[in-house]
Amino acid sequence: MTDRNSSSRESVRTDGGTEGPRVDDPEAELLAAGALQEGPSGDLQVTPAFNEAWQSEIEDVKADEDANRAELVEVMGIDSEGDVALEAVDDAFRITIDGALIGSLESQAAFYADLAGARLLADRVDAWHDLPVADRSRLLKGLRLFLETCPACGTEVVFETETVESCCGSYQVAAVDCDGCGARLFESAPINEDALS
């Protein structure tokens, strides 16, 4: 359980040798931002006010695909005048500039959640615009773990662990999937099996 009073940000050296903020504990940062709260059982959950605002922003994101490209460039800190393309490919949602892959998400539904979440966290997280892009991504992915319904179709989501096969073998991950459209909304890094025993 995350300590509500723990500090989640520390200063680190950034380009040019200046001090800059970095997110050390995404859950603590999201608690401080009013995005998460402790539920009756002690588990974390999205606050009702944040969830209502998040769902509204998700609907706005879904309604304007063209605006999403320009906004994504800003959120990801991309310094480019190139052609930004967003496309679903197999089991991923890819982001390219002039045909070059610069990032990917688990699904288009995850993209909707992240872009909508970025709009809200920009006003709730101190120094959001000064955070490294990797830390913004950590916050957005951490927030996505607490989705209750799918941003794409509105169906309830399911949290589970599963085995993933790759060229290097198999491993366990924690995942959040939509029970309706099948979109993957969150997938953790491989879980250390010793930690599960």
Automatic annotation (TrEMBL):
Disordered: annotated segments: 1-46
Chain intervals with Low complexity compositional bias: 29-39
Organism annotation: Halapricum desulfuricans
Sequence ranges assigned to domain DUF8054 in this UniProt record: 25-145, 148-187
Protein name as it appears in the record: Uncharacterized protein
Organism lineage string: Archaea, Methanobacteriati, Methanobacteriota, Stenosarchaea group, Halobacteria
UniProt biased composition (Basic and acidic residues): 1-13
InterPro entries assigned to the protein according to its UniProt record, in alphabetical order: DUF8054_C, DUF8054_M
